[in-house]
Amino acid sequence: MCSLPPEGSQIIIDNLNGHQLVVVPHGSGGVMRYFIGLFLLFWMGGWFMGFTSAFTQIASGEGGAFLIFWLGGWSIGGIFAGYMIYRVFRKSIPEQILLNRPALSLDTGIPPLKMNFGFTNQKEYWKSLFPKRKRLEFTPTDLKTLILRETNGGNRLTIDKGSDRIEFAIGASEVEREWLYSYLKKNYS
Fold first, then answer.
1. Can you spell out the DSSP letters for 72-85?
2. Grouped pLDDT means (10 residues each) for the chain, 189 residues
3. Integer Cα distance of 47 and 44 in angstroms
4. CA distances from 89 to 103, 108, 151 (A)
């Protein structure tokens, strides 16, 4: 019951422990992230010099309360910049969908950092900076809610699990999501 992904697709169909495994890459994240990563690497050089200077003054007893307060904020900024450097250069982990009938297992993987300034709200932006890898198993009852939703921003492939709506194949194109929807429907009908 294996149909091939659309021509030119990055989706891979494989086997894992006798079950079909569909691997959906997240994409590259764009070239802009490397420029931001390079900027942050240079910024960390200046951060280190500022940190060293302030810490030396405080350790010698010359720093006042303001310098201690400044060093605390500067340290938090350095930790955040270090994390962003890690996210920029970290290789993404693709989504994996295991067709272990009668269930279906989903590993959301971890997408690359994408520089997208079109977020509709701050919560969405922060979630993209700190993605959480989820491993979910869907029961046959959950799979009845599998749907390809048409939205203004394109189609979305979702499954409802309890009160949560899980979107997957986020890195796939619209054509690939349409193919995946048909593929899963064929395998779970």
1. HHHHHHHHHHHHHH
2. 80 91 87 90 95 94 91 95 92 93 93 70 75 92 92 89 91 92 90
3. 5
4. 35, 19, 32
